[in-house]
Amino acid sequence: MRRYSQQKRFLFAVDCIIFGYDGLELKLLVIQRGFEPCKGKWSLVGGFVQDHESAEDAAGRVLKELTGLDGLYMEQLHAFTQPNRDEVERTISVAYFSLIDFQKYKQQINEDYHPVWFPINQLPELIFDHQKIVELAKEKLRYKAALHPLLFELLPAKFTLPQLQNLYTCVYNIEFDKGNFTRKLLSTNLLLKLKDKDKLNSKKGAFYYKVDPKRYNAGFTSFLNFVPSQYVK
């Protein structure tokens, strides 16, 4: 194999920031690291890129090993290249954030990783620069969700408008006016109203909705401005 002469070799890794929503709180899935250094400490899910893989392939593999499923929403976040970010060897990491339906996948999470869902504002101390990665992922999530309907990836197949509003409240840490929020969401024509109601969480019951797939996919190529720009930080 031909190589560039007099050039050092670095390790190439991926880290996955996995967001989930349990109906009450936005959460992050972290694991207890299984090897040294920092064995037993809290870490993002990740792994090294293999010879035959792209970074995206490696991230998809890591997510499948954890959840058992393909096709999760995944988006590249950033490359982290600080020389001292890993105390063992120079390791460059490309981070990806992923959104999963908490209810759908919670029974399929691979327990070999010792995974735990933590509320996004109550995270434990994370190894290396993983806290910095999470903070950047939160910023990217808020920015993208203000313009595109990607937060629906966190919801079950049917949901109520109060559940949806609470999700946006969790992501942005602000209270949205109920009337304005409802009008804005319904004006996008992304939602299809169902006949049944959620009667567990209110006396009158709230109608369930589901996403219109065609309009949802189109929403990623247009700017819907779900959230005012002053809340996007």
Describe this structure in words.
The protein has 2 domains: 11-147, Nucleoside Triphosphate Pyrophosphohydrolase, CATH 3.90.79.10; 152-231, Arc Repressor Mutant, subunit A, CATH 1.10.10.10. Helices cover 27% and strands 27% of the residues. It has helices at 55-67, 102-105, 130-147, 161-172, 178-187, 213-218, and strands spanning 11-21, 26-32, 42-43, 45-48, 73-80, 91-100, 116-119, 159-160, 191-198, 206-211. The mean pLDDT is 90.
Summarize this entry quickly.
The protein is α+β, with helices and mostly antiparallel strands. It has 6 helices and 10 strands, in the order E-E-E-E-H-E-E-H-E-H-E-H-H-E-E-H. It folds into 2 domains: 137 residues, Alpha-Beta Complex (Nucleoside Triphosphate Pyrophosphohydrolase); 80 residues, Winged helix-like DNA-binding domain superfamily/Winged helix DNA-binding domain (Arc Repressor Mutant, subunit A), CATH 1.10.10.
User: Based on CA inertia axes, which overall geometry fits?
Assistant: elongated
Radius of gyration, rounded? Answer: 20 Å
Distance between the termini: 47 Å
Q: What's the CATH first level of the largest domain?
A: Alpha Beta
CATH superfamily of the largest domain, by name, is Nucleoside Triphosphate Pyrophosphohydrolase
**Number of structural units classed as domains:** 2
Give the proportion of residues in helices: 25-40%
User: What's the overall average pLDDT, rounded?
Assistant: 90
Q: Please give the count of helices.
A: 6
Structural class: alpha+beta
CATH fold-type name of the largest domain: Nucleoside Triphosphate Pyrophosphohydrolase
Order of helices and strands: EEEEHEEHEHEHHEEH
CATH architecture of the largest domain: Alpha-Beta Complex
Number of strands: 10
| Share in β-strands | 25-35%
Q: Major sheet: size, sense and barrel closure?
A: 7 strands, mixed
Uncertain runs are: none
